[in-house]
Design a protein that fits this description.
Layout lengths: L7 H13 L15 H26 L5 H9 L1 H33 L6 H17 L2 H29 L16 H13 L21 H27 L1 H6 L3 H7 L2 E2 L3 E2 L3 H29 L9 H14 L4 H49 L1
Antiparallel strand pairs: 1-2
Helix pairs in contact: 1-6, 1-8, 1-11, 2-7, 2-8, 2-13, 3-4, 4-5, 4-11, 4-12, 4-13, 5-11, 5-12, 6-11, 8-10, 11-12
Length: 375
């Protein structure tokens, strides 16, 4: 059992940075057009319900074990081991996907002469170094960069308001085609990305020094990150319009590029790059760390830090080789992954584990009561 501990404030900042991640810059929910911001709020509520009624009860049943550890306790040595290994592959794969997002954006916007493999390599080397220092050190850095993120985000929103680039009519009409397109856009895509990705924190909740705060910290972080993402989408539509937002690969960059205050403050899309680099570092790193802990559980490695280098190399290679181009990468992530991979992993399997664990607990309690009555 890893003995490192983190406090509630650190866990809150970590969850916020993870949830916002690359979702703040990638187009989500735009199937519902002007109602895209409602899509995010709806998916956010579903994410809160999943966290509160599946992940937290599992943590309370097994407060000293990570997800891949109690999966083996519930399903047994062989089936449990295979399921845990499946989650190891999932965490590694999704970390690689997020690393690919980082490399594609920074290469497109700021370093168009630099190969994506070099940018991804720099990111993964920084993460390997950080994670070998330990969880406590890594999470303390989250606190620092979370403060920077909040300052940059608020500054950008204020500049948009001052520059008067927003057009309220772009947000109308709301819910013009009823609720069906909104639900269709919210489920499974926006629900699974990013809100149900909180399944990753079932690997980290045992590190919380106050286990009673797990529910409160998680719910508040999901709600606030959902509000930030919803506000970001609303601003994109208000500034760019529905059509332009739908067809932009990175709409927030174009939105911030519209800022022009007195011909002096303009072309501030670099603010988005700063936000994205910060949030991507911790998004990739969180999945990376989950994969490390899962591997240490599965292969019974006492010092999890030793696994940072080999798993980091696998993540780097997967980010380079998983797709032939960024369009294919996005199509796979938006159309294939949510329905066939993420829904079972994020919701289906954890719910099944919870039901089996509760059933066994109930049976065990009944057996003990029967034994006590006989005595």
């Amino acid at each position: 059992m890893i003995k490192e501990k983190i406090n509630s404030g650190q866990m809150f900042a970590w969850m916020m940075m993870f949830e916002i991640g690359n979702a703040i810059i990638i187009n989500i929910g735009m199937e519902a057009k002007q109602s895209a911001w409602i899509v995010i709020l709806l998916a956010m509520l579903a994410g809160v319900a999943t966290y509160l009624f599946i992940y937290v009860p599992l943590f309370r049943l097994y407060p000293n074990h990570s997800f891949t550890k109690y999966t083996q306790l519930v399903f047994g040595k062989y089936v449990g081991w295979l399921l845990s290994f499946f989650y190891l592959v999932y965490f590694t794969y999704v970390s690689g996907r997020n690393l690919m997002d980082f490399g594609a954006l920074t290469s497109t916007i700021s370093y168009n002469e630099t190969p994506i493999s070099i940018l991804n390599g720099i990111m993964i080397l920084a993460l390997i170094y950080g994670l070998t220092r330990g969880i406590e050190v890594y999470v303390r850095s989250v606190e620092i960069f979370f403060s920077l993120f909040i300052v940059v985000f608020i500054f950008g929103v204020l500049l948009l308001i001052i520059s008067r680039q927003m057009e309220v009519n772009n947000l109308k009409p709301i819910i013009d085609n009823g609720w069906k397109p909104i639900f269709h856009a919210a489920f499974p895509l926006v629900y699974t990305f990013p809100f149900a990705e909180m399944v990753t924190f079932t690997m980290f909740l045992p590190f919380l020094n106050n286990s009673q705060a797990a529910a409160k910290v998680g719910v508040i972080s999901i709600l606030l990150s959902g509000l930030i993402l919803s506000l970001t989408t609303l601003l994109n539509v208000a500034v760019l319009g529905v059509y332009h937002t739908q067809n932009a690969v990175f709409p927030l960059i174009e939105t911030m590029g519209e800022i022009n205050i007195g011909e002096f403050l303009q072309r501030l899309d670099s603010l988005v790059v700063i936000i994205f680099v910060i949030t991507s570092f911790f998004k990739v790193g969180t999945f990376f760390l989950a994969a490390i802990i899962a591997a240490s559980d599965i292969f019974q490695v006492n010092n999890y830090r030793k696994l940072a280098l080999p798993i980091g190399i696998v993540i780097l290679l997967s980010s380079i080789l998983m797709s032939s181009n960024f369009v294919e990468h996005l199509d796979e992530g938006l159309n294939v992954l949510p329905r066939y991979i993420q829904l079972p992993i994020q919701t289906g399997i954890p719910l099944l584990i919870l039901l089996i664990a509760l059933f066994r607990k109930h049976i065990g309690r009944g057996a003990r009561q029967e034994h006590d009555q006989k005595e």
